[in-house]
Amino acid sequence: MSPARRSVTPGTGPAAGVRAAAGAKTAAGAKPAAGTKAATKPRQARRRSRPGPDVVARRWASQLDKKRPGLVTFVLDRLAETAGRPVWQPRLDPVSELVLTILSANSADVNAEVAFEALRTAYPSSPAASGTSGTQEPQVMPGWGGRGLPALPPPDWSAVEAAPLAELTDVIRPGGLANQKAPRIPAALGALRANGGGEYSLEFLATLPPLEARDWLAAIPGIGKKTASVVLLFSFGLPLMPVDRHVYRVSQRIGLIPPKSDPDQAHDYFLAMLGPEQMYETHVSLISHGRRTCHAQRPDCEHCPVAPRCRYFDPKAA
Predict the structure, then answer these.
(1) Are residues 141 and 163 in the same domain?
(2) Could you tell me if 203 and 315 lie in one domain?
(3) How many domains, in total, are found in the chain?
(4) What pTM was estimated for this model as a whole?
(5) Is 67 one of the catalytic residues?
(6) Domain span holding position 56
(7) Which of 173, 207, 236 is the last residue in one of the domains?
(8) Quick one: residue 255, left, alpha or beta (phi over 0 = left, psi -120 to 50 = alpha)?
(9) Residue of 156, 181, 225, 226 marked active site
(10) What are the phi and psi torsion angles at 37 (to 5°)?
């Protein structure tokens, strides 16, 4: 009588154990047999986190100091010899500064002045302010490219905020880009009123750390780093460096900022490059130099005091 057969489940038994052991060995790194492919465990790609803007800016400032030592001091000293060294002084009340800066975006400063005077006339804050914009001499405003504004009361901001958008657009139309700027003004005023307990005030920002104050303002639709920095620098003397088209152009030509950086990034580079006491002087000196000498078209390099170290004039300048 033949012995009873044991049924063997496929995939089990000693042979299966041998095959499993062989598979484990192959997975551990043994060379697979010819004609077969080793099973490979997918590897997760290692992603390096990009450094933040402040880290990149500090690296650039360190590199600039090593390769072109004393460049910032040279530029400021040479410009001071030509036009004097600017000293901080307030220009307008903070809310007027904010609205005027919104009006000046991508427009000539003289046109922004016309639009601001139109707001004073259309929405006077007191009877004396109505129709009297031409009775006083314009006040000189450092870093400003227009004629200046008379020292008169600001517009009635509540009336400006409540004005129908079409009406407000027509009022500021002489300043240029009215369709873009008109919605931004009541939006900014509304944010100030909501945060100021019904008052149109920016005074609370003066007590905040500079970058925190800038970020608060820049969170309002239509306000970026430049506008926020202008308002906080000129209203409260906070150490921030506004970068407009003139400052950006001059800085790139000299080589103070990387060639491929954009204006928004330039704010971070200057914050890493300058000491707090240099922010106001640098902004006013560079913007004035851009208007006076380093024009967008046909810059007057022959009479430029910083030409010896300018990469636009001499690509190999130290």
Answers:
(1) yes
(2) no
(3) 2
(4) 0.80
(5) no
(6) 52-88+239-318
(7) 236
(8) left
(9) 226
(10) -110, 130
